[in-house]
């Protein structure tokens, strides 16, 4: 599995250190807010569980699963809800937990959905941001790291269902998906 990685971008230690920093910032802000943490499956699973252990305030955990209408054409921009929330978020502050912001279509869709449900506020916490690829304007409120325009795997992020269990974030070798 490690042989398929071109380059490690962030080690487990570097991720842990960054998560500590982000969690301190978020904890200061949400002390008396009682937000709902909405994790976007499946990529944000690892990030969400590691982050939430560091958040020192009352919260509810929830998740959604979304998928692109046409998986083959990446930039179709059509997003569909596959698994809905189980919490009523009316008047609740919401923090969306995402693995990576790429074109921005997923989070654009989710922000609108959660706003339509009456969320009191919506913030985005993403492990990674690939700003070069943005097609719609979406900004993360808490970002772990900016990454180059390469295909990233590990720490929850997959290629074809694989590599999610890597404890670090890295660039996948092109030879793995080129043919
Ligand atoms: P967006 O809607 O912002 O284009 O992309 C959202 C989703 O695409 C992410 O949540 C993630 O699942 C997937 N994605 C985007 N870039 C990458 C990447 O470099 N590696 C992996 N594994 N998934 C990505
Ligand atoms: Mg995702
Ligand atoms: Mg994926």
Short description:
The protein has 179 residues and is α/β, with parallel strands linked by helices.
Task: Give the SSE map.
Layout: E1 5-10, H1 12-30, E2 36-41, H2 45-52, E3 60-68, E4 79-83, E5 93-101, H3 105-116, E6 121-129, E7 142-146, E8 152-153, E9 169-172, H4 174-177
Parallel strand pairs: 2-3, 2-5, 5-6, 6-7
Antiparallel strand pairs: 1-9, 3-4, 8-9
The protein binds guanosine-5'-monophosphate (5GP) and magnesium ion (2 copies).
Alpha-carbon distance between the termini? Answer: 18 Å
- Largest sheet strand order: 4-3-2-5-6-7
CATH C-level label: Alpha Beta
Q: What ligands are attached or bound here?
A: guanosine-5'-monophosphate, magnesium ion
Number of strands: 9
Percent of sequence in beta strands: 25-35%
**CATH topology tier name:** Rossmann fold
SS element count, helices = 4
Tell me what the structure shows.
There is one protein chain. It contains 4 helices and 9 strands, in the order βαβαβββαββββα. With 179 residues, the chain is an alpha/beta fold. The chain has one domain: 3-Layer(aba) Sandwich (Rossmann fold). The strands form 2 sheets. It has a 6-stranded mixed beta sheet, with helices on both faces. Strands 1-9-8 form a 3-stranded antiparallel beta sheet. The longest helix is centred in the first third of the chain and has 19 residues, at 12-30. The two termini are 18 Å apart. The model has no long low-confidence stretch (mean pLDDT 95). One magnesium ion binds at residues 43, 158.
Characteristics of this structure?
9 strands; alpha/beta; binds guanosine-5'-monophosphate; 4 helices; Rossmann fold; 179 residues
């Amino acid at each position: 599995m490690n042989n398929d990685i071109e380059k490690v971008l962030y080690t487990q230690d570097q991720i842990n250190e960054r998560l500590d920093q982000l969690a301190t910032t978020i904890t200061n802000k949400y002390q008396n807010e009682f937000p709902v943490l909405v994790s976007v499956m499946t990529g944000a699973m690892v990030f969400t569980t590691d982050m939430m252990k560091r958040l020192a305030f009352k919260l509810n955990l929830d998740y959604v699963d979304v998928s692109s209408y046409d998986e083959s054409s990446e930039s179709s921009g059509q997003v569909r809800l596959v698994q809905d929330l189980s919490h009523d978020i009316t008047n609740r502050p919401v923090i969306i937990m995402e693995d990576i912001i790429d074109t921005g279509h997923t989070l654009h869709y989710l922000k609108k959905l959660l706003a339509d449900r009456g969320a009191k506020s919506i913030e985005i916490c993403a492990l990674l941001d690939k700003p070069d690829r943005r097609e719609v304007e979406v900004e993360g409120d808490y970002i772990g790291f900016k990454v180059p325009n390469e295909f990233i795997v590990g720490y929850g992020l997959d290629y074809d269902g694989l590599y999610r269990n890597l404890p670090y974030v890295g660039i996948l070798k092109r030879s793995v998906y080129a043919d």
